[in-house]
Amino acid sequence: MLIDTHARIHDYLRISLTDSCNFRCQYCMPDENIQCLPNKHLMQVDEIEQIAKTFVDLGVNKIRLTGGEPLVRKEFPEILSRLSRLPVEISLTTNAVLIHKYIDQLKAAGVNSLNISLDTLNRDTFKEITKRDQFPQVWDNILLLLDEGFRIKINTVAIEGVIEKEILDFVAITKDLPLHVRMIEFMPFQGNHWNSKKVVTASQMLKWVEQEYDMVKLKDEPHATAKKYKVIGHEGTFAFITTMSEHFCCDCNRMRLTADGKMKNCLFGSEEMDLLGTLRKGEDIVPFIRNSVLRKHAVMGGQFSKSYKGADASELKNRSMIKIGG
């Protein structure tokens, strides 16, 4: 079991398979010509399996595969197949543009829940945000997943100047579709031009929804990052991930593994443990994993004051989101 100095049990691992993506979202990977890691610097299939097994032996019971975009990794089917043999729940975060090619593999691996990144329901806005004209394919794949019985969460970053116009549209799609839409407060990472004035808070968004709909607050799950609501009479739900305005660090059970094999004990933390380098030297990675968990800060990687409004993004030491993993 992995327990930090704040008595938090860590049993959820997010593994980034690649820092490459087929989109260029402005808050994550805005540089069209960004340099991605060569394959030899990525965790190889055997290494991902071996590291994942070690985490499972230490108490991990859920693994989420992320990127970049995990489906652009050519070995994705093999990685998924191997990890599915472990006694853990496997889930996936994806932009869904390639999902139609992997439905059978996802079913065979027992995956039943996916998080899909989608920041707009407007085709032109989608193209502006992602630099790709792929909204029809993404939406068709979302409907395909629903038809095939998958549980789908839509993750939309609350981008200033976009979410104000579309939040009610996102809530509206939960009327007839069993989707779980989650609005995420804009978070600071290297190169994404964050400042506190760009943060559209959950309380602001909730007020807009309340003016339009009758709704109820739902009970949040243990370790939940999202505060869930449901419009009365709707099939689906909506929620807010309040990372900036109301952190949820006190109950955090998450660890992250970057595509190049560095362990991060917090999304916002600057410290990393080189598990891949240690493994390739033939050394035991367990002490490094335990040490990383023990060094975890109580709140937001130790890089934020009590209020996000006082944060200076230029002083934060962290990777870009694409280099961390979703």
Description of the molecule:
It contains ten helices and twelve strands. It has 326 residues and is of the alpha/beta class. The protein has one domain (12-324): Alpha-Beta Barrel (TIM Barrel). The chain has a twelve-stranded mixed sheet with strand order 7-8-9-6-5-4-3-2-1-10-11-12. A hairpin with a 5-residue loop joins strand 8 (226-231) and strand 9 (237-241). Helix 1 (45-57) packs parallel to helix 2. The protein starts with 11 loop residues before the first strand and ends with a helix. The model has no long low-confidence stretch (mean pLDDT 88).
Hey, roughly how much beta strand do the residues contain? 15-25%
What's the helix count? Answer: 10
What number of domains? 1
| Global geometry | globular
Q: Based on the structure given, which CATH architecture is correct?
A: Alpha-Beta Barrel
How do the strands and helices of this protein lay out in sequence?
Elements: E1 12-16, H1 45-57, E2 62-66, H2 76-83, E3 89-94, H3 103-108, E4 113-117, H4 123-130, H5 135-147, E5 151-158, H6 163-172, E6 180-185, H7 202-210, E7 215-217, E8 226-231, E9 237-241, E10 254-257, E11 262-264, E12 273-274, H8 275-280, H9 286-294, H10 321-324
Parallel strand pairs: 1-2, 1-10, 2-3, 3-4, 4-5, 5-6, 6-9
Antiparallel strand pairs: 7-8, 8-9, 10-11, 11-12
Helix pairs in contact: 1-2
